[in-house]
């Protein structure tokens, strides 16, 4: 197995993890309310919304890191593919 194939596998795994994280974030965001009218009985609903927002904020940096890693690996794969093509030319 060559280096190009290994990079493809690593890129695929990173991209699958990224897609799963984005799907999870989308699922959480769909449960987040834009506007809530609360009275004294709605404190549990407010707490639930705060927890959802905290989870969403917590997911931001890992998703950004995964996007950058996926992009860098894709550029590296393309560069290695070009290099191998020119070397075999």
Map the helices and strands:
Elements: H1 3-31, H2 43-87
Helix pairs in contact: 1-2
Describe this structure in words.
The chain has helices spanning 3-31, 43-87. It is mainly alpha-helical and 89 residues long. Helix 1 (3-31) runs antiparallel to helix 2 (43-87). The longest helix has 45 residues, at 43-87. The two termini are 21 Å apart.
Defining traits:
single chain; 89 residues; mainly alpha; 83% helix
Strand content: under 5%
Report the major sheet.
Answer: none
Mean pLDDT: 88
Shape descriptor: rod-shaped
Helix residue percentage: over 70%
Short description:
This protein is mostly helical and 89 residues long. It has helices spanning 3-31, 43-87.
């Amino acid at each position: 197995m060559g280096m190009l194939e290994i990079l493809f596998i690593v890129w695929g795994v990173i991209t699958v993890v990224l897609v799963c994280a984005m799907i999870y974030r989308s699922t959480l965001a769909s449960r987040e309310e834009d506007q809530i009218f609360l009275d004294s009985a709605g404190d549990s609903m407010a707490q639930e919304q705060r927890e959802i927002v905290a989870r969403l904020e917590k997911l931001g940096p890992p998703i950004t890191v995964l996007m950058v890693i996926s992009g860098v690996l894709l550029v590296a794969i393309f560069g290695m593919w070009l290099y191998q093509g020119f070397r075999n030319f």
